[in-house]
Structures are given as C-alpha cells and as structure tokens.
Amino acid sequence: MPLLTIDDREIEVPDGTTILQAARALAIDIPVFCHHDSLSTVASCRMCLVEVEGTASPVQSCAAKAEAGMVVRTTSPLALEARGSVLASLLADHPRDCPVCDSAGECALQTNYFRHGAGSARSRPSEHHCKAPTVIGENVLLHQERCINCSRCIRFCQEVSKSNQLVQALAGQRSVAGLSPGRSFTDPYSLCTVDLCPSGALSSRDFRFRQPAWVLEQTPSICPECSRGCALTVCHAGNTIYRLQPRYAPLVNGWWACDAGRLAYPKYGSDRVTRGYVGLRTDEELLLPPMAAALAGGRWLQTEISAGGQVALVLDGCLSLEEAFAVFSFARQFVGTDEAFLGLLPDGTGDSLLRNPQPAANARGLAHLARRCGIELLPAAGLFAEHRQWGAVVCFGAEVELPRPDQPDQAGRVLLFAWRHNQVTRIAHTLVPLAAHFEKGGSYVNFAGVVQPATAALQPPPGIVSLPLMLRQMALQSGVLLDYTGAKDLSEKALAEFVIREDIP
Which domains does the chain have, with CATH numbers? Predict the structure, then answer.
C-alpha cells in the first residue's frame, strides 16, 4: 500500500488507487468534468491536473496511480494555471446563457468557473448565445453548442445502459455528442445522461423551465414503481414535486434510475381521494373528513364481526413496514384473524439493468413481517377460492387489485383505504383517504432484501392522517388497544428483526 503526500498531508492507499481517489479520501476537492466513478476513465477534459514533485508538467489525477513517496500539490500555482487554461479553452465558445439554462445552480462548468477561473479575463464565457435545442428523444433535449466533449453520456450508453445510441459527432474542435443519423434517443435510462452532463448540453424535457434548481428542497425517498426500490431524491417546492433524481445507493441502484420511475410522480397528485364516504353503493354518498370516515367504517366493521361475519384484509404491496405492522396488529386484535391477502398488480416489464417486473416496492418486506407477526399472507387470487363468503373486505392501498368473485355478493361490503381512485373505489361501501407515497415516511424492503428508509417530502391534503393512527383509533372506539403506541414505538417494533444497512446513504 503506497504512502503518499497530498497538500502536506500523508495518506496510505491500496494499490491501484488514483491520485484523485486519494485526494477525495482526504476531502480535498479536485475539479473534474469527464471523470465519473461508475464510468471508464478517459482523462480527456484535463480539469483534474495537479502538480507532482519531480515531473516536468501537470499530471491528470483521475488517471495517474498513486505511488509510494509521491508528493502531490493540488493548489500550487502550476496546477491552478493549468486548470485556468483548460477553463479558458472550454469557455471560449460556450454560450453565456446561464440565466435561462436549466442546469444553472447545479452546473459543474459554472461551479468550476467561479471556484477556479472567476476574475480571469481568459476564463470569461463567450458572447455566443444558445440556439434552440434539438429534440433527440421523448425525454431529452440536446444543446450541442453547450457540449464540452466530456463523453460522459456516450460512455453511459456504451457501458451502463448498453443502448449505444449517443455517439461522438463531427471531428476535431467541432466534436460534440450527438445521435447517429436517423436514430432517436429511446434509451429507457435517458434521463441519467442529463444527470451526468456537466455543462447543460443535455436537459430534461419534463423539468425544462419549471423551477430553478436553487429553490428546490431535496428529500430522500425510494421509488415505489417496482420491487427494486431505487433510492431517489425528491426535488420539491411549495408542496409540489418537480422532479425525481437517483440517489447513490451501491446495494440497490448505484447512481441510476429508470425514466419510467422518475417520471411517474405526477400520478401521486392526480385523481386524489381527499374526502371519505360511508354508504351503500346505491345510496347517495355522504362526504366525510378522513378520520370520521375511518371511525364510521370501524363501527360497521365491528357490527359485522359481532354478527359472526368473516372479514378479509387485502394489502397493497407498496405499504411501508410500519403500515403493514399496524394492519397485522389490527387483524389479530380487532378482526380476530391470522390471515391476510396480498393484492399485487400484474407483473410489468423489467430489464437487465435495474427495473424489476414486479410492481410492488415492499412485497418481500410484507411477506417477512407477516411471518414474524403470525399472519399467513396469501395471494389475493385466492380471495374467493372454494366459494368463500366474506361479510366485509378491507383493502389497504391504491394499488390493490381484487379478483372477480364467483357470485355477486361474495365480497360483502368493501372498506377501502386509498390515496387515489382505482377499480375498487367503484364498489367500495366505505372509502377512507390515505397519504400518498411521497407524503409519508416509512421503511421498505426491496426484492434483494435491502431495507431502506423513506422520508415524507410533501404534506398530505388537509385532514389526512397516517394509516396506523386511523387503525388505532378505529380499534380504540371498540375498546381494543392495538400493540403500538406512537410512531417511534411502531417503527421500532416493525423493524425489530430487519437490518438497516449503514452503507446506504
């Protein structure tokens, strides 16, 4: 393991470590454009130049390996002058359109200009202005005059998504990223190239001109669109989501997330259930506040149980572990049953990179938790098997699908907890509004068994409270005290046998 000195600080690193990696281990900032930890090293931008004692010229720190006895200076006059020259050449033809660029505020070129080149006449941006962008795909726009030829997007398409749809266009100083003639950018991970671009040459059609980056709040969450459960950053302002971006999680999704999951956020704000109702399907619906609807549903549910009717509980595979623990407690202590059903949507389309065909973000976690709680979790396809007659069916979640009963009244009355309207709301006797995924916190287990926490990014509509609180109040009005008290106690009990990996940010 070589021992080297960087800016008068010694560090011992494993063989094969680059100078850039060693510097980052010391929290020393060396600017880069073309380098990315998950892509191959091309050392083309020259922005990471440092001075190494004993060499005649600056060294590319992203490619040079650390050697024993090496003395590196990252802020020497030689290194700073070299980086200034790189910036000068890049900015000579770069448009001065920062005020109208979607990358403003999070642009590596802009950041490095102010950190390493501001005040130098040679480093000032040109007077050229950006032309109209080219639509190269359903989700991505290309501004070729902003391209600094870092090749990150091209390497992503070659090495990660393997679509090979972006290529090096033209030659020499006119070389830029582009599409092969006659092709469209249909890569299902195309928005990852927007994240990688350091200069605003690629931009998202969905996010374009919606909000400047510096006004957005960022909240960690997970993607509920498949059982991969990609770690996400929710970018929001004014209780509105403007975009979702992948959050680095080495055991789950690495640096990436698919376009389908990132662009699914509008559905969590549309067709919402904000008021509940109780009444027969043929009666005029009486709209109620959420808690009032839940308590009314609890009273007729208690009546059904007292009369000897059977009650089926059907869970959405996107419930959090905390919500599922509350449902299982409700099942044992209030309903008096040791079985429940998992109502999963049909499998979707998967791929070889990240997307899993199973659309339930927490199916594995619910199955494990059910066994620990003494609940037999059965597929919802068997809900009406052997002509079972239910007095009531209670559904938890908007992504629940019920099989078609053999007889019209086999399901009895339906009590639905949901955040948006679905096929079950049309037959529900009682409807209780829930918070949507990005309006609640909780823990989720993906298909590989990795436990991840999610944090609430938005406030739910007025009056909507958490599902565990509603279930606890429903049971309490009948004199039943469920075996959890508050949110902290619930979380500790739900996660009692799960291991939260500390190496997931």
Answer: 3-90 (3.10.20.740), 127-269 (2.20.25.90), 276-494 (3.40.50.740)
